[in-house]
Write a structure and sequence with these properties.
Number of domains: 3
Helix content: 40-55%
Number of helices: 14
Distance between the termini: 103 Å
Length: 336
């Protein structure tokens, strides 16, 4: 009889403990879905306190205790969506696994660092000012293998899935990693013949990216720039002027062409100091495989295509015809 009473008492104790644990693990009454942020390096006890303040758990002591019982690993920093009805244990495992909110973002070919920064901030991935600060941090860039003034041209344009409120350096490393992967898939055997380093390859590809509107013209535009470099001619590339004055839309004015910036290839000889945008794979391939032609000039036809010339006289007539509307007897029979 005494044994039965003891067993009954033990059973009651177990039921009471289980009931308390069930209550402490249950979602609080009036709980609502919330966005919850975990800061980098934040302790579990701090996380538990804030979860209780936001009415997302019933007991911060119980939540902290889960860490000890379940061999607590640090919670992952980031932005979380905690839904109504989630138990304390559900939330605990969510924070341990790092089930943070993520965003799909597409960086178009031809975007520069400033445009990338705006796109990433718009999608709540990184702050624009922090991203640009890191993208121009020479010490940080050197530590990840970028020996340049900025990360311009080294962040491959593609579709990515990033955690919301990401670390900007992590974003830069991911985009650089994608570029390295692409370069490993491309035939780089022409680099020595064309006197290209990885840096100047990206510079050349960025000029092609900004000038080409028709895909088939990329190798012809590449040929023009390579031919001008061989002859020590200025590149005379309009998009480098835009980059020099940091005005990426609208007309180019005469005073822009006089900018003393090292990016202004109407004033400076040779390559600009860095790429002027993030080139895509097709422009990188075109930079490595210029068309075998002696073209030295090209002008927009105003339909997305270009007219290519071998002489300055021919080019001047084409410019007058297409850009200034002069009826100078110019005839365009060019078919590439």
């Amino acid at each position: 009889m005494k044994l039965i009473k003891r067993l009954a008492a033990a059973f009651c104790v177990i039921i009471c403990i289980a009931s308390v644990l069930f209550y402490l693990n249950s979602p609080p009454s009036l709980m609502q879905s919330e966005i919850f942020y975990v800061e980098n390096g934040e302790a579990l006890i701090s996380v538990a306190r804030r979860l209780r303040e936001q009415n997302l758990i019933e007991s911060e002591i119980f939540f902290s205790g889960l860490g000890k019982v379940l061999h607590y690993a640090p919670v992952k920093p980031g932005k979380y969506k905690i839904n109504t009805g989630a138990s304390s244990l559900d939330i605990f495992w969510m924070l341990i696994r790092g089930d943070i909110l993520r965003r799909r973002v597409t960086i178009p070919e031809g975007y520069n660092l400033y445009q990338i920064a705006e796109r990433l901030e718009r999608d709540d991935i990184v702050r624009k000012d922090k991203f640009l600060s890191d993208a121009f941090d020479r010490a940080f860039l050197a530590s990840i293998g970028i020996r340049a003034e900025s990360a311009e041209g080294y962040l491959f344009p593609d579709t990515y899935i990033f955690p919301e409120r990401s670390d900007s350096r992590s974003v830069i490393k991911t985009m650089l990693g994608r570029l390295k992967y692409v370069l490993n898939q491309v035939d780089l055997s022409n680099m020595n013949r064309l006197n290209l380093s990885t840096h100047t390859l990206l510079v050349m590809a960025s000029l092609i990216e900004k000038e080409a509107r028709k895909s088939f013209e990329r190798t012809y535009i590449s040929a023009v720039f390579h031919n001008r470099m061989k002859r020590r001619m200025k590149l005379d590339c309009d998009p480098t002027v835009r980059y020099a004055v940091k005005r990426f839309t609208g007309p180019i004015y005469y005073q822009d062409l006089q900018s003393p910036s090292p990016y202004n290839t109407y004033i400076q000889y040779g390559y600009p100091p860095t790429p002027i945008c993030s080139p895509g794979r097709d422009s990188i391939v075109a930079a490595l495989n210029p068309k075998n032609t002696d073209f030295l000039f090209f002008v927009a036809r105003n339909d997305g295509s270009h007219y290519f010339s071998r002489t300055n006289r021919e080019h001047t007539r084409a410019v007058e015809f297409y850009q200034r509307g002069k009826q100078n007897g110019f005839t365009d029979n060019q078919r590439l």
